[in-house]
Amino acid sequence: MKAARFYGIRDIRIEDVSIPEIELDDDVIVKVKVAGICGSDISKYSKTGPHAPGEIFGHEFSGEVVEVGANVKNVKPGDSVAVSPSLPCFKCEQCKQGLFSRCEDLKIIGNGDAGGCFAEYVKISSRNLIKLPEGISYETAAGIEPACIAAHGMYRANIEVGDTVAVLGTGPIGLLSIQWAKIFGATKIIAIDIFDEKLKIAKELGADICINGKKDDVIEKVKEFTNFKGVDVAVESAGTPITCAQALSLPKKGGTVLYAGIPYGDVEMPRVHFEKILRNELTVKGTWVGYSYPFPGREWTSTIHYMKKEELKISPLVTHRIKLDELPEMFEKIYKRDIFFEKIMVVVDNN
C-alpha cells in the first residue's frame, strides 16, 4: 500500500509498505477513505519532527472496515466507520475514573509504531471504531475527531443557554467551537481572528459578531458589544501569546476562560491580563483531546448526532481536497505560507 512516511522535519515521502495484518482478536483493518491534516501534524512537520523516523503519521480519518479479528462484534467488513485515534492505557487512575483525556500514558496513532492514517490502510482496536449512520459522508466523518475535541472543551466550559461566548482564533477547532457554542445554547457568539477570510467562515457558521484583531482593539470591542460587562465564556483556540493574554480580559466578573489552543512556544503576558484571574475571580480551565466514559464517550455520540441533524458542519471548513501523493507538496506549501487554508482533507480512496 501507499503511505506517507515521516523521516524528519520537512521530510515526508510517499512509499510502498506492507498492508497491516490482524494480530490480536480485537484488531480491525480499516481502508482509509478521507484523512484530515491536523494543526499538530503541521507543527510536527515544521518544528518537532517524527517520534520515530519513518513513521506513518496522521490521525484524523474515516474509512471502511475490510477485515476484523476473531472477537470483534461491533463492526463487520463493509461498515463505514469513524475512528477514534487516541489510545488510552485503560489502567491508570485517570482511566479507571473514565477520564480518558487525562490518561497518564495517552498515545495516539501516527506516532512511532502506531501507524497513522496518511496511508491506504490502518490497523486499530475495535473499541476505537464507531459505525457511521447513513447520511454522514466520509469527509464529514473525517472531521469527527476534531469536532469531539471542540465538544470536550464546551462540556468543560459549562456553557449555558443565554451565554455570550467569545472564541479567539478561528482555525478548525475555533470554527467547531463556534458551532458547538450555538448548539449548547449561547445566544451571542463573538469570533476573533486576524484573517478576514477566516472570520467570513465564522460568520457563516453562526458567529454573531466578528472582530479582526489587526484592525480593532479586541478588548474594547468586546466591552462595546457586551455593554461593558464582558462575556460569560472566552475560548482561546489560537495558542498565541497575544490571544492567551487577551482571553483573560474578555470575561465578565466570575466568568470562565477555556484554553483550547496549543502554544508551540513560551507564553508571556502583561500583568494587567493575568491579574484578571484574581480581581475578576475567573474560572480558568484547560481542555485536552475529546474523550469520556464509556470510551470514546459522549463527545463522539453527540458529534455524530448533531452532524446527522446538520447542525454541526465540516464542509464549510474544507478549503482544499488533495490526493495522498500530493501530501508532501501540500505540507511544504503550508510551511512556506504559500496558501490560505482551514481544513485540508486528503482523499485517500474515493470509491
From TrEMBL:
Keywords: Metal-binding, Oxidoreductase, Zinc. Transmembrane segments: none annotated. This is Galactitol-1-phosphate 5-dehydrogenase. The lineage of its organism: Bacteria, Bacillati, Bacillota, Tissierellia, Tissierellales. It comes from Anaerosalibacter massiliensis. SUPFAM superfamilies: GroES-like, NAD(P)-binding Rossmann-fold domains. Residues 8-346 form the Enoyl reductase (ER) domain. The keyword Hydrolase does not apply. The keyword Metal-binding applies. PANTHER family: L-THREONINE 3-DEHYDROGENASE (PTHR43401). Belongs to the zinc-containing alcohol dehydrogenase family. PROSITE patterns: ADH_ZINC (PS00059). Pfam families: ADH_N (PF08240), ADH_zinc_N (PF00107). GO terms for molecular function: oxidoreductase activity; zinc ion binding. Its cofactor is Zn(2+).
